[in-house]
Design a protein that fits this description.
Mean pLDDT: 92
Distance between the termini: 24 Å
Low-confidence stretches: none
Strand order of the largest sheet: 1-2
Structural class: mainly alpha
Number of strands: 2
Largest sheet: 2 strands, antiparallel
Oligomer: single chain
Number of helices: 6
Length: 117
Amino acid sequence: MKLLLVWILNALALMAVAYYVPNIHVANFLTALVAALAIGLVNILIKPILVILTLPISILTLGLFILVINGLLFYLVGNWLQGFVVGSLSAGMIGALLYSVLSWLLAAIIIEDKKTN
């Protein structure tokens, strides 16, 4: 149940990103759900490989190259899915950063982890 709620929150965050970033467009909420799933899968499957392959440049840039990797993956998902459009790599970088912050913030506000002492 918690996974389903996080997925919906990520789709809402993606809709908000499409509203605030001019070169990112999402056709409807169903497209946002599919795009949020695709972004999650790409981040789980492809991102670790890219991070390992680009480790030397990430070390030289003190980790800032990870923003480029996130933007590139966001841009590629935007080109791969129909109804989800990311206009440029810079829009992908801004969108990926804003998407990460918004999805984290929504999950932190709505999902409360009850820790027992």
